DNA sequence: CATGAATGAGTTTTCATTCAT
DNA sequence: TATGAATGAAAACTCATTCAT
């Protein structure tokens, strides 16, 4: 029940007065959130155990409640963090400067890579949908984030149509759904997929092929035919 | 708390050996499975409550254990039933007689409709993936069913290539994944989608548009360009 | 943690088929309520421990929740029972047939005796008042019970005035408050009283003197002066 | 969660030794006691929350432990303060100079008013009785205070008997109990009373009527009949 | 087969108190 | 002195499962 060791507080620099701080709330919170993200994403909301989270933490269970109030509060904080991460990344994408076709390919590849690398995120979205998205709806950040993706796509579509590259009759939200579907499914359902076909979709070779296939499918979908 | 009435067993009247049965085990099992399907698909495996299932049933908790052994046993039975249903349906599809392009469109539309109508199935697959597909792997029906879809697609692809309609470099399993992704995602994640964009993907108009879009995307993907 | 023995179920009569029932929900509930009444009345709502109640019971903690839902639910059930008891007794009082002065004396003595003997009840009322009476307000039985006491007093007052024994300007509810005050206080606050004056108000001699004093005070209060 | 401001210590300006003090321990203690009195009297000893007290204070939890040692220590300090207050007041009563009947009426009215105005005191006494008066017994002020009331009453009774106004067979402690009962009960149990009869006993009109009724009842009780 | 009562181990949550800065 | 962070023990509550009738 006793913890063997504490987190070594980050030594900001050489100043001894700063080093070895034992109380570092931000660090503590971050640590809890990290562990909780794993637990919730691998066990679901009701399957997750507060005790299990606390145990893998540098603190005690009490601190979970101190900072997050309840199991659900912690779950919401996890959702918020995970959604915040993807938004941050997305905004750095230099898509507006690219040729529409190239830009769209970049966007698809980014979306593919993000889902591929952030299985926790994907699982948490699945879990949220099992709960009817009731927790995610309370996050202010959620809706605005999605709006920005749509604006990016609208811009791409408009430029692509103007350049004669894309069909004019494509809805941005529909296209987003198409891309999401393709990138999300193979990660979210990789276990049943693997079990059904004896192929692990996260194997590098398959992964690369799927990446290309998906970009290819999306581009063929939007392409204006001669 | 008291149950008002029990299920009256169907009297196959006339045949004396069948009549006058007071209990109908098959009926009881079916009833339990139905309720359990709802509960598991809407709450997940750990979120589901045995008491909640028993309460909405015509029987008592005891019977649930009598027939299915445990909560997990019941969950597996639910998976099995749900998988059995889809397989039955698929085999009636008269695809081998159709023109490849038409056949593929039919297959996509069938897949779309099936997912659209069987949300329980979709949710259960999501749930299974959260549990690493450990329960579904035990089902014999699972692998064989998937094998048969792949054979159907392989046949379509071969005929399409031969007819000069399809590209020759498409893998059947990849194509299946593509189709599944598009049909599955909008159902599985309709809550977060709805919350993010204020659009309910199960609305008839949106549903029809997506159905066409998806078939369109798949056909564009396989089509051999002139 | 194991219970040494179960409650011997009441043997209704000599029929052996009825005897030694192990499952007797009514008995179980009664047993829990009895123990809970002690615990709540001696520790207060927040001071009471569910574990402590369970331990002194013939069942386990789980059953408290099975029958009463929560600690608060159990507390409410205790209140309800305790209030039901006093009402039952009160209705058997043959006051309407007595001479008004004698009837009023009887009522005071009954009230005195009841409070004197039911310290649990008195303590629970004190406790309820600390909680702003929020639990007791939810009991339907509560208001109707009080109405019946008031009717009894109104009847006594009317007959006493008519007989020239009582003053005509006395309000029934005020008189009830007067009687209650005198009977309640010495029980409710017997500890501080005992500590302050070195007298234990529950000592038989003091008890008898107070009983007479209180009846005396009430009768002097209502008496019509010549 | 952050406190906006601390209590500014009163600068008794001019005197350099007093000025420029940054903290005022007495002020801090007083502040804590005030808040604690509210919390304990409204929630009971076990119902009170140390966190809740600290939050409504100008200081932090640490100070609370620094000054009072523990939750119980704080509770005792609250009792002591509340008892100290009442004693101070009572000693100013100029009863020994009044005619016995008038003096007794004054004493009853004072007792009535005091209870009516100091609900915290009344509640705390109720709470103490729930805990068997174990904390109050430790207060030196407690017994001496009660002794002085009894002396006052004894004096009144003696003078009243001598003047032919009062009956000779009345015990001072009994009379004190009678007066206390009448004054205490309507305050201590005003919630159940209000709920039972739809009358709020703290309403000014009812209050005035009760004040007169109680004085009346006490005087009728002691009066020597012609 | 059917049923409500019973159970124990586990899970979440709370709370008075102490520590490091 | 002052303060937010930290803690462990205990409390309330839940749940899958089994038992007696």
From TrEMBL, chains A, B, C, D:
| Compositionally biased intervals (Basic and acidic residues) | 18-28
Name of the protein = TetR/AcrR family transcriptional regulator
Give the record's keywords alphabetically: DNA-binding
Q: Where is the HTH tetR-type domain?
A: 26-86
Q: Which InterPro entries match?
A: Homeodomain-like_sf (IPR009057), HTH-type_TetR-like_transc_reg (IPR050109), HTH_TetR (IPR001647), NicS_C (IPR041474), Tet_transcr_reg_TetR-rel_C_sf (IPR036271)
The answer, when asked if DNA-binding is one of the entry's keywords, is yes
Query: Looking at the keywords, is DNA-binding present?
Result: yes
DNA-binding region, residues:
49-68
Q: Which domain of life is it from?
A: Bacteria
This protein's species is: Paraburkholderia kururiensis
Region listing for Disordered, in residue ranges? 1-28
């Amino acid at each position: 029940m006793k913890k063997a060791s504490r987190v070594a507080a980050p030594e900001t620099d050489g100043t001894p007065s700063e080093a070895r701080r034992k109380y570092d709330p931000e660090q503590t919170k971050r640590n809890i959130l990290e562990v909780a993200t794993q637990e919730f994403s691998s066990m679901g909301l009701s399957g997750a155990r507060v005790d299990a989270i606390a145990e893998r933490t540098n603190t005690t269970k009490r601190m979970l409640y101190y900072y997050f109030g309840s199991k659900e509060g912690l779950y919401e904080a996890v959702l918020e963090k995970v959604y915040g991460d993807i938004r941050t990344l997305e905004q750095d994408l230099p898509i507006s400067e690219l040729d529409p076709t190239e830009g769209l390919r970049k966007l698809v590849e980014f979306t593919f890579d993000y889902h591929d690398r952030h299985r926790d995120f994907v699982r948490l979205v699945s879990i949220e949908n099992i709960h009817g998205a009731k927790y995610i709806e309370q996050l202010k950040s959620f809706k605005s984030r999605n709006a920005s993706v749509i604006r990016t796509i609208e811009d791409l579509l408009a430029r692509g149509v103007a350049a004669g590259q894309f069909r004019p009759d494509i809805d941005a939200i529909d296209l987003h759904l198409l891309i999401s579907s393709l990138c999300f499914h193979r990660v979210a359902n990789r276990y049943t997929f693997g079990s059904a076909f004896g192929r692990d979709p996260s194997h590098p070779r398959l992964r690369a092929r799927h990446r290309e296939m998906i970009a290819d499918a999306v581009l063929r979908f939007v392409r204006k035919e001669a």
